[in-house]
Amino acid sequence: MSAMGIFHHLTVLEYADRCGLYSNSMDRQYSIYRYSTRLVHDNKEGNSALELHMTRKDGTVDRVARVVFWDAYGDFFFETFGHQVPVKIAEELMIEAKETIKVR
Predict the structure, then answer these.
(1) Long-range contacts, 45-49 (Cβ 8 Å, 24+)
(2) How many domains in the chain?
(3) Residue 73 lies in a domain
(4) In sequence order, what are the residues at sequence separation of 6 or more whose Cβ sits closer than 8 angstroms to the Cβ of residue 3?
(5) Does residue 3 belong to any structural domain of this protein?
(6) Phi and psi for 25 in degrees, rounded to 5?
(7) Each residue of 47-97: pLDDT tens digit?
(8) Is the CB of residue 49 less than 8 Å from the CB of residue 68?
(9) For residues 79 and 9, what is the distance between their CA atoms, to the nearest angstrom?
């Protein structure tokens, strides 16, 4: 990638982060997996979510869970996507979601 390409890539990421489109916070090893989070907003559906991603040793990544704040309900919900999530990681995800997701 050229220097200009790298600059453009970083600029887009910085812009997206400043606009609250997404951010990465948790990034930790737990047992044999690496867990990271990503904040996403869906204005059309009326929710914001903190997604939990699990990276395996071979580099494959799966979205394994998320904490969603639904505007219509005014509350947080925890969802999993066919994977077991260690309680410690789930607790950290819930704490981070409540600190990160802006509730109106």
Answers:
(1) 46/70, 46/71, 46/72, 47/71, 48/101, 48/102, 49/97, 49/101
(2) 1
(3) yes
(4) none
(5) no
(6) -125, -75
(7) 899 999 999 999 999 999 999 999 889 999 999 999 999 999 999 999 999
(8) yes
(9) 32
Q: Would you say residue 6 lies in a domain?
A: no
What does the block give as tokens for 41? 């907003």
Asked if residue 57 lies in contact with residue 32, where contact means CB atoms within 8 angstroms, the answer is: yes
The answer to whether residue 30 is domain-embedded is: yes
28: enclosing H helix or E strand: strand 27-30
Q: What are the beta bridge partners of residue 49?
A: 40, 68
Q: Which residues contact 26 (CB under 8 A, 6 or more apart)?
A: 35, 36, 37, 52, 92, 93, 96
Helices (H) and strands (E) in the chain, counts: 2, 5
pTM of the full structure: 0.73
| 94-36-80 Cα angle (round to 5) | 55
Q: Which domain holds residue 92?
A: 22-100
